[in-house]
Amino acid sequence: MLHLLNRVTGSAGKTLTYLFCLGGIWACVTSPVWANYTPPKDADAPSGSTGSSGVRGCLDASGAMAVLAPRSHVGQTASTRPTVSWAITDTQPFAMEVRLYQVNDGGNQTLIEQFALETTPGIMQATLPSTQPDLEPGQRYLWKVIVLCNPNRPSNALVDQVEMDVVSLPANLVAALDQADSPLARATLYAESGLWYDALAEALNKAPAYAQTLLQDLATLEQGSALGQQFEEQLRRVMEE
């Protein structure tokens, strides 16, 4: 199978990434045993700004869309320009938006960045561009991915959203990353340290076989969570495509 990684520029001049495999999202990779994703011990439970909503009428009978991130806890990143990844299995193109918000202590959300693009079957990514200020460690943010089933009827949009905490890299992890001799080694260090967004972004772009292992870890992790049950089912469907 052929593995494809395409980078294109969105309508606002931002670089977006589309990662997919011909013949199915995971048809081109195998899953050796590597280090598991370990949720951080200090991870918070979601405040309620996590999960999917809206209708799925714009997707075909086998279609699914899911942001690839934890639901039973708030995923962490040490990147001040983090990447969010999501998967969509429907082959029909739809307009979509990706929004990044800062969440304050009162739960209010401030829009930081917005991407306008079109759905493509497979795994897609968006990264905070260099035109925006760095995100701040110690702050919480919200990614919202929106499929516009009918741009004239926003209430019919398919929405999935996840919270994200930006944290500082521990000194020992900085040293370990400096000594890492491959993207796979870096991805596993991130995963073992509970930095979900960093681990998945590194794996998807530079060690794609390990990305499947991470998503399998996440699907298993979410099985026991009432909040994550719907997501776990979505993720299983995405991985089976």
Write the layout of secondary structure elements.
Layout: E1 3-9, E2 15-21, E3 51-53, E4 65-67, E5 75-77, E6 83-88, E7 95-103, E8 109-118, E9 122-127, E10 140-148, E11 158-166, H1 171-179, H2 183-192, H3 196-206, H4 208-221, H5 229-240
Parallel strand pairs: 5-11
Antiparallel strand pairs: 1-2, 2-9, 3-11, 4-6, 6-9, 7-8, 7-10, 10-11
Helix pairs in contact: 2-3, 3-4, 4-5
How would you describe the overall organization of this protein?
The protein has 241 residues and is α+β, with helices and mostly antiparallel strands. 23% of the residues lie in helices and 30% in strands. It is built from five helices and eleven strands; from the N terminus they run βββββββββββααααα. Helix 2 (183-192) runs antiparallel to helix 3 (196-206), helix 3 runs antiparallel to helix 4 (208-221) and helix 4 (208-221) packs antiparallel against helix 5 (229-240). It is globular and about 50 Å long.
User: Main sheet, how many strands, which sense, barrel?
Assistant: 6 strands, mixed
CATH superfamily: Macroglobulin (MG2) domain
Number of helices: 5
Into how many domains do the coordinates divide?
A: 1
Instruction: Point out poorly predicted stretches.
Output: 1-15, 17-33
CATH class: Mainly Beta
Helix-and-strand structural type: alpha+beta
Features:
5-stranded antiparallel β-sheet; disordered N terminus; Immunoglobulin-like; single chain; alpha+beta; globular; 241 residues; 23% helix; 5 helices; 6-stranded mixed β-sheet
